[in-house]
Structure formats: C-alpha cells, structure tokens
Amino acid sequence: MTSIPPFENELLNEIAEAYRKRRKSLKHRNSRPEFYKVYEQGARGTVERLEIVLEDGTKKNSAVLRLNAWPDRYVSVGVRNLGKSAPGWSWAFEGRLLRKFSGRDMLAALEATLDLLPRTDGLNTEMFNSPWKPLLARGPSEIHRTA
Asked: Smallest Cα–Cα separation from 35: which of 51, 20, 49?
C-alpha cells in the first residue's frame, strides 16, 4: 500500500490523514482511489497542493470525482462523466474552506458526493452541491442596507 506523503500545511495533513484512515473503505466502494501531492510553480514560488481522484465503481457511470486543496484553504471539487453510453456531463464547486471545518469534514463531503454519483444522469447535478455548501465560502456577497 502506498504511503501518504506529509505536507508542510496543517490542513493538507489533516485531509491526508483522513484519506489514509478511509482509504480501505473508499477502495471497496470505488474502483481506484488515487492520492497525489502536487507542486505548482508560480510567481510566489512553489506551492504544494493535494489532489484526490475517485472513479465511480458502479457499472452505470464512468464518472471521475476530483478534489484539489491548497494551503490557503481554497478547495475545488468536480465530477466529470466521460459518457460511454450516454452524453458526457460535468459539475464543479469551489470555494474557501471555513475555519470551523477540518480535513475530516472535507473527506466526509467527498464520500457523500461519491455516494450521489450512481443517482445522477447528468441532468440533476445540483444535488452534488449539498455536501459542499456548508463547508465552502464562495466569495463576498452584497449586503443591502435599508435606510
């Protein structure tokens, strides 16, 4: 069994530890869970990123669920169905993980999303939002004041 690499960031380590504890369960529910530590080179130097890829193990779908997390708590999650027997479709949700949530909460949301995969045909992808809406802040919203 491949070891999970350590990260410099506490949140990424929490996610990695939660994944390590749930990896066997994911493997039984999933055809091939994969975990990556990725280094991105940018204007501010090298930044590490965590990536988890889960393929739907059911015969109905050929969907791939992908989670990316960065040290600044920014998270991107998405599903892409390759459409072997039906038209392909995709879904994505992203935002910044709220401070009150941990890596374990993120992995629970990822598993909840995985559980929803067999129940969609690509027309009702909005149901994938439900595990993530409480966890991720999606940017500033306008405040209306009454005079």
From this structure: 51
pLDDT digit string, tens, across residues 58-109: 656 678 999 999 999 999 999 998 766 667 889 999 999 999 999 999 999 9
Element (H, E) at 94: strand 89-97
Does residue 35 contact residue 52 with C-beta atoms inside 8 Å? yes
Does residue 5 belong to any structural domain of this protein? Answer: no
**CA angle in degrees (0–180, nearest 5) for 17-100-79:** 60
Structural domain count of the chain: 1
Q: Is 128 a member of any domain?
A: yes
Where do runs of H (alpha helix) occur along 85-137? 103-116
**Is 66 within 8 Å of 80 (Cβ atoms)?**
yes
Strand partners, 81: 63, 89
Print the domain residue range for 131. Answer: 10-137
Amino acid at 82: L
